[in-house]
Amino acid sequence: MKKFTKAFSVFMASALLATSLVGCGDAQSTGATGAAEGEAQAEGSAAGATFKIGAIGPLTGGAAAYGNAVCNAAELAVAEINAAGGINGYQVEYSKEDDELNAEKSVNAYNTLKDWGMQILVGSTTSACSIAVSEYTKADNMFQLTPSGSAEDCVKYDNVFRVCFSDPNQGIASAQYISDHNLATKVGIIYDSSDVYSNGIYQKFVQESEGKNYEVVSAEAFTQDNNTDFSVQLQKAKDAGADLVFLPIYYKDASLILTQANTMGYAPTFFGVDGMDGILSVENFDTALAEGVMLLTPFAADATDDLTVNFVKNYKEKYGDTPNQFAADAYDAVFILKQALESKNATPDMSTSDLCEALKSAMTEIEASGLTSTKMTWDASGEPNKEPKAVVIKDGAYVSAN
Amino acid sequence: MSKTKRDNLITYGIVILAFIIFQVLSATGNLSSHMKGLLVPMTYYAVIAVALNLCVGILGELSIGHCGFMCIGAFTSAFFSKVTEEVLPTAPRFIIAFIIGIAFAALFGFLIGIPVLRLKGDYLAIVTLAFGEIIKNVINAFYIGVDSHGLHFSMKNAMELNMEADGQIIVNGAMGITGTPHDSNFAIGIAVLLISLFVVLNLINSRDGRAIMAVRDNYIAAEASGINVTRYKMMAFTISAAIAGAAGVLFSHNITTLTASSQYFGYNASIMILVYVVLGGIGNIRGSVIAACILYLLPELLRGLNTYRMLIYSIVLIVMMIVNWSPKVIEWRKRTFGNLLKKSGKEMA
């Protein structure tokens, strides 16, 4: 026994030593590659430097699906751009960092990317992280284009632009759409009060609903700590006679709501926003229940235009997953950067700050077309100007509602 | 110089030395921006580790809701800074923010201490856990706005505030507080760490501290010797909460988005702080500072390993715990390295 403990402790101690060595070794090797890259860049500025684009998102943890979608799609876009000859003839280098959905870690990720030599940031994926990082990009005057940071404050600074709709805009657009198409007379809302995204849309939707041709009869909240049983919220909506239930939430919770509404025999029209995209791919979810669900989304993976078809095919090939709207926003973001950089004839040897200034003015001038809209323009506030698309689920697929 | 005094000076010395080293590295441009960004978080995790060690190590009561006090300090001070951002210049504003954050955290530590400290051991741990969660969830339900008519408050939603057009929503439910001025920096963080070390180390070596440790070591004997047990328990718990509040102030002024979500203030975060304390040594204040810094840095420095870093972090944690605290390993370490030390001692002689 004593021998065993001795052997065991020796093993453990050596494991510690080994792991610490691995840690050091890695740090050294990244340091070395960093230096090598630095040299390469120094040489490159003479021969043909590269643009360095970084992305940040939650690659681990509960929100990993969003972060991975953004980072993978950006990677795919960069690979396609490089294959087609790069931006202004310069190749693009790409790196991604994990933020675990934590604003503090997101700032750390940003600093890591800065050490790597990042010139333009595509990120952060989520709102709170994006706001925290924007404080630093502002200080460094680095151009930041967030694909999916939808909270109002994300684009507070002039160096930050976004691809997706803002939360308030989605609320306004939803209210407008329901009213214009006479979809309902009484509306019930179920939202996630612990989520920034859901709250933002909900607040604006209620404000915008004043004076519309329907009335909000119930607004029930849930939080991420109790998102398994929605019977109370559904019962309240049912009792209030709501003929449309507005769900400004993510698809996972929405799939449960649909299932439970079905069990209790309540069948209003369900109306969602872009977070609802993905509901058809939820495991063990009977897609027949989603029949007739309407959602406002900039992207539907089974659209038939060439761009979407190609994107979905390549993404599936490379990552084995159907891309969602996060992926589409990130893919567009990289191509928007390409267009903006090309419009100003920008080169990688420009300083980060100069690139930022060039991109800031370019963004207000270009008219981009991509997966999420055929026509996107920006004003200096950083908000995109694009038409929301409403889709309805028919026979297990998205069909344009108009 | 007494042994404890020398020991305390070593602790301050380590902190000051670390500060000087990092400042020099930073001034000479040898510090990556990644590392620079890690310095402030490192200080506030060290501060809260010191606070928790006072509660767990010196008072001997296991608290797993300490991030709740950090949360209170963070929100009250961020609220103040946000409201007075345009009115007050940075320095006095930040000092008042500290006072407010610390005072509120202490107040809540006191209030929560009244029912909590009637319990012991596991029961106390569970109640502190519950309080930590309550604090987080209640703050998540707050909507507070300011306009020309003064403060508006609601627990329902932002629309209920009925604000004038010029109004500004300060606390927006789950969205928390955004746009807190970025006032924290490494020097302030180190100053706060030194002050909390000074407070805790002096408390330990005082009459009150000895009374607190007597309560920890033998409750009945302490009570029999005429020590007012409740008073000393409350004292240690409140001071601990106040220092946690100071860590919260640093936290909220370092990141511009402050949300009362689980990843910062939930029980997972509290347990992470407890890990710092246990690894550094329960009752060993210097140890918790060092452990907090190392364990905060570790997953960040392993970034290059991508998703494997989580696994490696966990393995390192297990190995470090065993190497540090397994009696057999300690014995073995003494046997092996003790001999080495003796030998080198002889050679030197």
Give an account of the 3D structure.
- The complex is a heterodimer of chains A (402) and B (349).
- Chain A has helices at residues 2-47, 64-83, 103-116, 127-140, 167-180, 196-209, 231-239, 251-263, 306-319, 325-343, 352-363, and strands at 51-57, 92-98, 120-122, 143-146, 160-162, 186-192, 215-222, 244-247, 269-272, 294-296, 377-378, 384-385, 390-394, 397-400.
- Chain A is an alpha/beta fold.
- In chain A, helix 2 (64-83) runs parallel beside helix 10 and helix 10 (325-343) crosses helix 11 (352-363).
- The model of chain B has no long low-confidence stretch (mean pLDDT 89).
- Chain B is built from 14 helices and five strands.
- Chain B has 349 residues and is mainly alpha-helical.
- The two termini of chain B are 27 Å apart.
- In chain B, a hairpin with a 2-residue loop joins strand 1 and strand 2.
- The interface between A and B is large, with 53 and 51 residues.
What is the element layout, followed by pairings?
The complex is a heterodimer of chains A (402) and B (349).
Chain A: H1 2-47, E1 51-57, H2 64-83, E2 92-98, H3 103-116, E3 120-122, H4 127-140, E4 143-146, E5 160-162, H5 167-180, E6 186-192, H6 196-209, E7 215-222, H7 231-239, E8 244-247, H8 251-263, E9 269-272, E10 294-296, H9 306-319, H10 325-343, H11 352-363, E11 377-378, E12 384-385, E13 390-394, E14 397-400
Parallel strand pairs in A: 1-2, 1-3, 3-4, 4-5, 6-7, 6-8, 8-9, 9-10
Antiparallel strand pairs in A: 10-13, 11-12, 13-14
Helix pairs in contact in A: 2-10, 3-4, 5-6, 10-11
Chain B: H1 3-27, H2 33-58, H3 66-83, H4 90-116, H5 121-140, E1 143-147, E2 150-154, E3 168-172, E4 177-178, H6 186-204, H7 207-217, H8 219-224, H9 229-252, E5 257-258, H10 262-265, H11 267-280, H12 285-301, H13 308-325, H14 327-348
Antiparallel strand pairs in B: 1-2, 1-3, 4-5
Helix pairs in contact in B: 1-6, 2-6, 2-9, 2-11, 2-12, 3-4, 3-5, 3-9, 4-9, 6-9, 7-9, 11-12
